[in-house]
Amino acid sequence: KSVSHRAIIFSALSEGKSTVKNFLRAEDPLSTIRAFRSLGVDIDDSNDDIIVHGNGIHGLKEPEDVIDCGNSGTTIRMLAGVLAGNPFFSVLTGDESLRQRPMARVINPLRQMGAEITARSDNRFPPVAIRGKTLQPIQYTLPVASAQVKSSLLLAGLYAKGVTEITEPAKSRDHTERMLAGFGATISTEE
Asked: What is the pLDDT of residues 38-69, one digit of tens each?
């Protein structure tokens, strides 16, 4: 599931056609496909493979409606990092369960990067409203190891001029780092 989300996200942010094989057609990764379609990315999932026609990192478009992330915490948290650096307004929400999931651990560091982002209940829970801004790089230490939060900040770092550095108290899944490198981003990790 984690790899399927990221394959769609990085394909959508890259330029040109990407083919995603062995995509997990579970509801959470499908929420990521729907989210990027609402941002103007052409995604064909009518066959076994998923074909993503990426618009490039600056090619997303303002959605016409609220983006429904379903029950996917990965979708809402990682998409918050992407949208924080895009120059338009968007709102992320989800089902009843997702609207009770914590967002402050993503919102607070994104704000440190210069994002204009607010959420329900004193910025703790979805829906999340984002007005994309020019972001600044960050040196941030995660209080708790989290691949979702780390990934959100790394995605936001793609929109910042300079080096974004994330320190984890313990190693979390590294799918994002591997895919960033695979898609041509300059990224390094240290133990």
From this structure: 999 999 999 999 999 999 999 999 999 999 99
